[in-house]
Amino acid sequence: MEEYRAPKLIGKRAPLNCLVLPDQHYRAWMAMQRYNMSFGEYVGALIDRAAGLPNKLDGMHQEALAIDKAG
Known about the structure:
By secondary structure, the chain is mostly helical. The protein contains 3 helices and no strands. The protein has helices spanning 22-35, 39-50, 56-70. 1% of the residues are buried. Keywords: Plasmid.
């Protein structure tokens, strides 16, 4: 396996270039609209979720649940 090399940063962020299937691109676009996130924010949240870390997507669901419980 190749050793990890840190990418060159653009500001405080690392570029992530990848190709996805057209249907996946559409689903990502729909999610970005629903969650009011950029593509980078959405992909970052999915990466954190897959690693079992706190992320913006799950945080949004928890806030919604907290409001429902309060009522």
